[in-house]
Amino acid sequence: MQEADRTAYLAALAPDADIDHRGTPFSEDLLARLLDALRDPTTQHPTLGHARFDGAAFAGPARFGGAIFNHGASFDGATFTYAAWFNQATFSGIATFNQATFTYAVWFDGATFTGTAAFGGAAFTGNASFGSATFTGAVQFPGATFTRDVMFTGARFKDAPWLGPLVCGGAVRLGSAVFEAPVTMVIAARELWLTRTRFASTAALRLRHTEVDLSGTMLEYPITVAAEPAPFTGPLARPLSEEVLTGRDASVRVRNLSGVDAAHLALTDVDLSECRFVGAVHLDQLRMDGRTTFARPPIGWHRRGLVPLRWSRRRTLVEEHHWRAAAAGHPAAGYEPSVREWQPEPYDLGLARIPGPETLAALYRQLRKALEDSKNEPGAADFYYGECEMRRHDRTGTLWAERALLTVYWALAGYGLRASRALAWLAAAMTATVAVMMLWGLPAQASKQETTGRQVTVGQTLTLTTDTPDPVNPTGPWTERVTTERFEKALRIVINSVIFRSSGQDLTTTGTYTEMTSRLAEPVLLGLAVLAVRSRVKR
User: How many angstroms separate the CA atoms of 199 and 218, rounded?
Assistant: First the structure.
């Protein structure tokens, strides 16, 4: 188009005019002249009727800020070589940006979409911002790809049944956004920020590759967060490319539940190994389904004084890692812990500001109840172990007598959850009992009954007295005491003691008290082992 024709065309335009610029190349100056020709003198905003920019190429900055599209707008297949501004724009009717390409950043901050907003297959190379935007109707991102961040901070979704499927190489930020109707989010992204997001209805979050921050999220109805095992499909049921997420596994990691009412939350197949639970309420009503993973204790052995101990394998909370690392004096800043150490708090808050054992015991207690209510008794056992550990270490809220009792319970049977520990103590007790019986408990010789009486004359009554001499303590060398015969007798005594039975053997004073002790202690150890096995197989 010649300049004279272009000038005449622009002069003939008026606010609210329908325009059709499909395939038109726009420079920054040409677009500015077009929007000036459509500017309403009363509102000072460009006002367009039905606007069609399908396939248009914007070679310079595209400044549509404050524009009013009264009868729909179509930017399908348009190319934005530089930054684009649609901030404070108003789209009445259907607004489509399907297959559009945004090479640099684009802003829709404060924009209002009163009809359907469609971004199917759109490609955003730079950051995309929809901060404080309002979506009255449906908003569609099927197959959209964001190389960097996309921000919906403070946005309001009044009737958006779907958000996605979309792929984002950066973060999807929905902080302080409001969803007024049921919504299903289908998102593959590095991060998903839902801090202080409000869900006024039900929601289902189907995610991949994502680290989720739910701190302060307001849940008024049930919400489900689930990991999807297979890539999402876009238009024509084709799998969406996840090239911008290359190198990341497909797992979903929830990082923070602080301030969340967990009564409305269900988690499926998610990683909670770095999740902070402190500050969440109603954790006893949290639903955890599928393969939900937690942090693990360090690997290998450690010393407590001169005693070598091995960390028990169980599910732990990351807050326990932080507390133990701080209590051990591990710094946070610049410190790279190994798998043999507890992981420190990354922000170096100091021990005084890190949740202590009393708080952690309450967290473990609530999560234990949540798993018990869902009939996952073996999973709840780990949280019971964690609860007892925190009570044992709590020097302010737990009495010393209770802590002493818990220490004995921990040492003997791992709070009734470690069968191997109870069986080891049982084997040690039986071995010790056998040794004591062989060396000091069994008499030197078996006692023989003796019958005595007096000879009387014919016709008188004969009185006989039968007596058993006291067992004689063995005094010979140890080689005479440690024999196969004495071992067999001692073993029979120990086996009977384990099941509360008396052996019926003649014993020395030492053997009698040893048998009494073994009949009390060894059945208890056997019972603890049985209890530990049952806690792991119970359904």
Answer: 6
**Better-predicted residue by pLDDT, 515 or 337:** 515
Q: Which candidate, 444, 436, 414, 440, places its Cα nearest to that of 497?
A: 436
Spatial distance between the Cα atoms of 81 and 284, rounded to a whole number of angstroms: 52
What is the gyration radius of the CA atoms in the chain, in angstroms?
Answer: 38
pLDDT, tens only, 125-184: 999 999 999 999 889 998 899 999 999 999 999 999 999 899 999 999 999 999 999 999
120 secondary structure, DSSP code? T
Block residue for tokens 């409305």: 264
Rounded Cα gap, residues 143 and 239, in angstroms:
9
The tokens describing 534, both together, are 């049952």
Contact 289, 267 (CB under 8 A): yes
24 contacts: CB under 8 Å, gap ≥ 6: 53, 56, 57
Least confident of 120-124, 172-176, 420-424: 420-424
The residues pairing with 184 across neighbouring beta strands, listed in sequence order, are: 162, 204
**Per-residue model confidence as pLDDT tens digits over 268-323:** 999 999 999 999 999 999 999 999 999 999 887 766 666 677 788 899 999 999 99
Best mean pLDDT range from 168-182, 237-251, 341-355: 168-182
Nearest to 16 by CA among 46, 42, 54: 46
List the beta strands (DSSP E) in 270-323.
287-289, 301-304, 307-310
Residue with the two structure tokens 């902080």: 175
